[in-house]
Amino acid sequence: MPAVIVVGTQWGDEGKGKVIDYLAEQADMVVRHQGGNNAGHTVVVGDAEYKLHLIPSGILYPDKLCVIASGVVVDPKVLLDEVAYLHNRGISTDRLRVSADAHLIMPYHELLDGLAEDRAGAHKLGTTRRGVGPAYMDKAARVGLRVGDLLRPATFAARLKRVLDEKNRLLAKAYDMPGFDFDEILQTYLAYGEAMRPYIANTSVVINDAIDAGERVLFEGAQGTMLDIDHGTYPYVTSSHPVAGGACIGAGVGPTKITAVYGVVKAYTSRVGDGPFPTELDDALGQEIRERGNEYGTTTSRPRRIGWLDAVVLRHAARVNGLSGLAVTRVDVLSGLSELKIAIAYRYQGELMYEFPDGLDILHEVEPVYETLPGWQEPIGDVRRFEDLPPQAQRYLERISELTGVPLALVSVGRDRACTIALRELF
Length: 427
Prior knowledge:
By secondary structure, the protein is of the alpha/beta class.
């Protein structure tokens, strides 16, 4: 009963969408288990490019069941817009299921997200202002509204009334802002519920039944390990668990049913938002790599910050996720560079650190210790076997595996599905 989790090992944007799309061909079900529309996956199929924010990228295959599980926070307007986007491109969503227990992003969440960022000023977290953090806050405070509530109008109305009264008081007292109209939100969201009705299900049952029946289930998340609220660069993190353990919680599946965890590694490092970034290249080379890799956010179009590969981060990710294998992406972006660097340790107050520090104040002050490897000049987008890669590219990839202690499983040499080298059976 193969159940495979794919996680990002850096700050997100590692190319998980490409890897998930590639693996989805072998899967029967693809499950999104956390996050919201604050992240996205870009998938290229031939000449077509698809940008998805909530719906699993497995939807591009006509025979895959795609699940948005209870750990996701759902903006119903965004979800329905995404459904329409797929329909307009000839993609069916008949095999989409949405957890009745998933929490809703409400209009006040989005507004409060932006207001909090504006008030924080120089200390802002760099959120996408999509309301994801405030929705998770309400979930933890046990005042959240859930997808299944939309199918019970009286229940939804009663719960919305209590929450909205409190949110309107907060907006008035803390921000001197007008509140929201109860009837307008009620009618809008009940209409969303009717449109979503065909998709809503008890997804924990759906997922576990599939695993128990021997089907292949692929779990995908958003963001990356370093944005995990417990194991990332707190407080510059997301509000959920992108690590492998988060898949079990968010999907309602026990850990004994997971058979493999693959970590997606971008061949360099990027991040969006504020926070420390030890290997950042804030120079012309960083800008060159950004343009080569089209490193702009799928959801926000914000330019991503670029840096050399950081093996300290990758070792941390390998440990907290229990990685079975590495999927290294964007290797083709590095073609033509004369030399490449990997941070193998940090130097802090004269001492070498090989493990990721537990204090953000330390991370601000560390100096990366680099190992330099030769680059390669030839393009590699047409290569389909590892042994046909330039020797320097092979060595670079092997060194990533050595520094993390995790075997290579897959190498991506381009954005298209076909530009993929599998080094082992992945399912």
